[in-house]
Design a protein that fits this description.
alpha/beta; Oxidized Rhodanese, domain 1; 2 domains; 5-stranded parallel β-sheet; 7 helices; Rhodanese-like_dom; Rhodanese-like_dom_sf; signal; thiosulfate-cyanide sulfurtransferase activity
């Protein structure tokens, strides 16, 4: 099938779908919103492409052979953090890629408070060649819910 016929089929298929949606009471604005939501869903899902790792599995790894990366703010880290973690806030990941380069092929376990910043950090690391990035299941909220030990800095 030539390109012109394919284009005509795709166009007519899209037109038919829009016509059906309009008959169902969806106006152009509703359709646009729906498509935007679907797009955002798939984009956000792709940022969390890294494998989740449980706290127990992460703790079973030798601390010297993995990096536990806390991407929360310095203030959050100071209040409580997971022992052996290193704090590099999400806003500073790009400027610290050289510092992290020793871990490009080592396990890097990333966490934040609830997972949003961790997802963004994971995408940044993977885009910069990190090959073994994982997301800590439950993040800091899950860690604290399970009453696991934390370290505090300062008072």
């Amino acid at each position: 099938m030539d390109a012109a016929k394919m284009k005509k089929i795709k166009t007519s298929s899209l037109s038919a779908s829009l016509t059906k949606a309009t008959r169902l009471g969806m106006n152009k604005k509703s359709i646009t919103r729906l498509l935007t939501c679907l797009y955002l869903f798939f984009v956000s899902a792709s940022t969390m492409a890294a494998e989740d790792i449980s706290a127990d599995a992460m703790l079973a790894m030798k601390a010297s052979e993995r990096l536990l990366l806390d991407v929360r703010t310095v203030e959050e880290y100071t209040k409580a953090h997971i022992p052996t973690s290193v704090n590099i806030p999400l806003s500073e990941i790009e400027t610290n890629l050289t510092r992290l380069s020793d871990f490009k092929n080592s396990p890097v376990v990333v966490y934040c408070r609830s997972g949003v910043r961790a997802g963004k950090a994971i995408a940044l690391l993977e885009d910069n060649g990190f090959t073994n990035v994982m997301h800590l299941e439950g993040d800091m909220m899950g860690w604290e819910t399970e009453n696991r030990p934390t370290n505090k800095l300062g008072n």
